[in-house]
Amino acid sequence: MTNMPVKPLAKSQPAESITDLPPLGLSPKDIKVDYKRHFNYTLGRDRHCKSAHYAYTSLALTVRDRLMERWKNTRYTVDESRCKQAYYLSMEFLLGRALGNAMLNLGITDSVTEGLYDLGIYLEELIEIEPDAGLGNGGLGRLAACFLDSCASLQLPVMGYGLRYEYGMFRQLIENGFQVEEPDHWLRNGNAWELERPELTVRVRFGGRTEKVTTDGGRTRVRWVDTHDILAVPFDMPVPGFKNDTVNTLRLWKSTATDEFDLDEFNEGDYPEAVAAKNKAEQISLVLYPNDASENGKELRLRQQYFLASASLQDVLRRWVWTRGHDFSQFAEQNCFQLNDTHPSIAVAELMRLLMDEHGLEWDEAWSITSRTMAYTNHTLLPEALEKWPVRLFEQLLPRILEIIYEINARFLAEVDQRWPGDMDRLARMSLIEEGGEKQVRMAYLAIVGSFSVNGVAALHSKLLREGLFRDFYELWPHKFNNKTNGITPRRWLAWSNPGLSELITNTIGEGWVTDTTQLQQLAPLAGDSQFQQRWQKIRQHNKQRLIDFVAEETGVVLPSNFMLDVQVKRIHEYKRQLLNALHVVHLYDRIKRGDIENWTPRAVIIGGKAAPGYQMAKKIIKLINNIAQVVNSDSATEGLLRLVFLPNYRVSAMEVICAGTDLSEQISTAGKEASGTGNMKFMMNGALTIGTLDGANIEILEEVGEDHFFLFGLTAEQVEQTRQNYHPESFIEGDEDFRRVMELLKNGHFNRFEPGIFDDVIGSIESPFDPWMTAADFRSYIEAQKKAAAMYRDQPRWVQSSILNTAMSGRFSSDRTIAEYNRDIWKLTPQG
Ligand code: KVW
Hints:
This protein is an alpha/beta fold and 833 residues long. The protein contains 34 helices and 25 strands. The strands form six sheets. Strands 1, 4, 7, 8, 11, 12, 13, 14, 18 and 19 form a ten-stranded mixed β-sheet that branches. Strands 22-21-20-23-24-25 form a six-stranded parallel β-sheet, with helices on both faces. A three-stranded antiparallel β-sheet has the order 15-17-16. Helix 1 packs across helix 4 (109-118). The longest helix is centred in the first third of the chain and has 30 residues, at 52-81. It is globular and about 90 Å long. The model has no long low-confidence stretch (mean pLDDT 96). Bound molecules: ligand KVW. Ligand KVW is lined by residues 92, 137, 139-140, 143, 291-293, 379-380, 385, 457, 486, 674-678, 696.
């Protein structure tokens, strides 16, 4: 670590006063002065510079300055109080843009707008310059970002730990209807929101072998030797709370090569090769794996996971030793790690290793600490998403960790055998190691065994975990299991993304709702008030126009402003059933073509989302949507009645525009498959109505808002499993004239005139008795629910009433509520006021 800037001053004695600074002002004038200072001095630009980038960066630095003092003070407060802390370990933090959020939470948006306006600069334009921090795939990564916002807003001492991917989620282009991926080098123009902390670099080991050594005291210890080491350099990002002077930290690790690693080979005379070998080390944090809810089993991914777990745990243990010395007896009382799915679950074994091999604890003591410190959140029941790593990979990459996993397993299975003597089936079912075929480590089981808390992310999901996937473990340890229904931050997803509605709400009920969304209920009595409805309607129409403009910019398709905007945005996956949505559009198109357009509700169906690059079926579904759109939109019969658009490159900053302008939110997954969903909550909070199945958090949304304000359809999770036994899609198709016609259009190549056969597999999946998503089974009830939605939309006062009620009853889906529950039941932290 020779080049790290850690050498202390020798002769100089910096005065205490070097950190005494007057707090920076928040007035328009103060903002203006600092903006000019950064533009001219920090960035060294002059009046010839018209670059948007430098304008944006000047403002970002100006706003960041205002976070710095608060950030430091938050750190001091937590250090001095010696309070318990929690750490959110996640491979993904889908942060989106930081500037607007920082201004909102500092309460300086108006001031900045005014200060910039004096300089002839429009804030809206600078906002758009910032690239999204796309360090996540979808719901799971965005949830982590919402949680950080809520922790800071609740003043909880929680730190996020993640990876600083050089390349985030790929940019999606659509060429000839096909998805094309482009790398997202989001750091290309620098990142004003991160602070490198090279002095806190830690070393992470890979490879090598283990050996037993006997210490002077006669105890056996294990040493992990001949390793290939990689350095983890932390980059800190500020996480401001809402108007409370708290600024928490998200620490993201970047991988770099050690110097001696190069030196070894240099001594053999291969200097350029040695330096080039740095590449391998730097690879670890190079790129985000773009797979949502499906495992990929690649060695580099396991390296990433261990790198995150090890660097983060070492960082926490080092702070512990600095402040408390080598006594770990209170460690579990003072620290908690929340594992965001199994991705960081190797932390269970790594904490054991660090406590035993690096800090000299015995197994029992280390295990007591570990299993009282770790808490695990499961996000899916889909078997293809359950992580399993080949034992062989562990042997090569993490031999010491594998030994520890084996030991955890041996002791665990002994416990199972005590409880159910001689039940060999159960032992095989519950073992951390899956036998038969290539031996694999079941990461979810490691997480359960090593944690004191296991939670699902919506009521139905948690129930299915207890009764299905984790049944054996629930029988053994019922007390570990709990539910934490997901939530979203109302700061980004209402206050920021929907300034019009926010202002109306604040003028009506005061601004308390921003930190206590249950107050939105006070809008409910106004839902039937025609004056209030008109104001609500006017703002929503304005938001719709913003979305229409956005769609026009991104796709060239201009949607009429009287259309119902019917939106499904989320990752493309068969279980989410974008295909069912497409079938409905084909049905509407068919109705138009046969002249069945009495009492028609003009509608634009907008579908957006990325497919994992290796997921062929999902990519085919994108192509199908684009082809249907092409046919529908260019047929003059649909004019004024129907449009379909595929919105490319769906991302956080796009959702900020989309959720505010949507009328109808599509949440149509096969029941039992979507663990929670969080997009559903964003739409609801912004006053969209939902058409949805009894799946994930939809069930709880329906409970809150009531059946009259939600378009429910489809089989229940239970019915899905029953129907599956004896599923005959052709009977649904043949018995339904509308469905039959839709399938006929697809099959006769109406949407692929010059691309014969390309949709055969997609069509085949609908007709297959083994279709796991049972699209055909829900077709009729979906069409009927869509009819009801269309009818209600024609009665605008009725629709607007439901819209108001959706916002009013959305309070439960604030991530503040979710985080308060995590804290009450799992973390037990004291807010740091
Ligand atoms: C691997 C996921 C990235 C890489 C999930 S389940 C598994 C993953 C796997 C992501 N993501 C989603 O988590 C959301 C947050 O809890 C849920 O709302 C959503 O239902 C689930 O699919």
